[in-house]
Specification:
With 158 residues, the protein is an alpha/beta fold. 39% of the residues lie in helices and 26% in strands.
């Protein structure tokens, strides 16, 4: 399987979630199952069934995170000399040519993306259009809601 790019921050977040699932959530649900078993008849025991369902979710998420982490290529943008160009992990401040508003995006891996917080996946139309652009460049691309045009104001690597 191919390596999946991820920022240092995104990698740390997945590792923290995995640690919490294994160290806190899994033991808690195991105790809840044991307690529910003590109440007798498991067929009609709602606590038992709820705890088993939670356990299934936790174990599934652990497997998913371990799989993702095994295929990650962590990219530390602070260690790359990009020469002012937009690359994976960089933060880009843009000027919307139509509205005149300034917006900022950081190009991240798919698991980290959250448009509400300005984190866009490297596979998104805007990120693909921005890659290799520099300050002052005009970026035009087709967004889901139509053609967009932005000017690159700044590129930073933090």
């Amino acid at each position: 399987m191919n390596k999946v790019p991820m920022t240092v921050r995104g990698h740390e977040m997945l590792q923290q979630e995995l640690k919490k699932l294994k160290g806190e959530d899994r033991p808690t649900v195991i105790k809840a199952i044991a307690t529910a078993r003590e109440h007798g008849d498991l067929k009609e025991n709602a606590e038992y069934h709820a705890a088993k369902e939670q356990q299934s979710f936790i174990e599934g998420r652990i497997k998913e995170l371990e799989g993702k982490l095994s295929h990650v290529q962590v990219i530390d943008v602070t260690e790359i000399n990009a020469g002012g160009k937009v690359i994976f992990g960089s933060t880009v401040k843009l000027l919307d040519e139509e509205s005149g508003k300034e917006i900022s995006y950081r190009i991240v891996g798919e698991d980290e993306a959250n448009i509400k917080t300005g984190l866009v996946s490297y596979t998104s139309p805007i990120a693909r259009a921005l890659i290799s652009k520099e300050e002052g460049d005009l970026v035009e691309f087709k967004a889901p809601d139509g053609e967009k045009s932005y000017e690159v104001i700044t590129v930073s690597y933090i």
